[in-house]
Amino acid sequence: MDDEDIRFVGTHIKNIDKKMRVSVPKVFREYLVAGEADTSGKSDESGDGMNSSKTGGDRVARTGASGGKPMVAGVHAVLMRGMPVAVCGGFELRRIIRSQLYQEFPKPSRDRARKERALLGRIKFMPFDGDGRIVLDAELAEHVRFDDRVSFVGLGDRFELWEPDALRKEQDAEEENAYEDGLPF
Fold first, then answer.
1. Among 2, 31, 70, 124, who pairs with 60 as Cys (CB 3.0-4.6 Å)?
2. Mean pLDDT of the chain
3. Which CATH number is 3-27+76-181 given?
4. What is the 3-state secondary structure (H, E, C) of the chain?
5. pLDDT tens digits along 49-97
6. pTM of the full structure
């Protein structure tokens, strides 16, 4: 991972309203929107056909993969099995997952297909509203066990959603292990 891939950093705790809406931290939202669309209005140099426009206050990206139809920016999330956490990112999260799967399984196989279904097939998409909020998916909210707050935890090229108390317990255990193993700095 080079410096360009370190987009999401820090831990941000946000309140969830009664309609299960939460404001994505501004620093995360800026990367999510920028990753979905070139806000200059010019074609993307990467050749993936993405450019941007504004429609009714929502930022959208146009991509060849969607047949030129607008794609609304938002958060993509994968529920982690056996842990009360969701791994999140923008459209780039799909590329990260697929790249990792293709490295592990370079040729099409049943094992690769199973993992694609388990990861790509279970991605939850939560679009931004005009105020930079997302509505938390009901299955995601049940899996992570949100109450009235959510922790956004930056991991560089992706981020996680945690219930704040569960995150604190996980971080305490990780910190103790880090000291036992010797800190890298």
1. 70
2. 80
3. 3.40.1550.20
4. CCHHHCCECCEEEEEECCCCEEECCHHHHHHHHHHHCCCCCCCCCCCCCCEEEEECCEEEEECHHHCCCEEECEEEEEECCCCCEEEEECCHHHHHHHHHHHHHCCCCCHHHHHHHHHHHHHCEEEECCCCCEEECCHHHHHHHCCCCEEEEEECECCEEEECHHHHHHHHHHHHHHHHHHCCCC
5. 333 333 334 444 434 344 554 557 899 999 998 899 999 999 889 888 9
6. 0.75
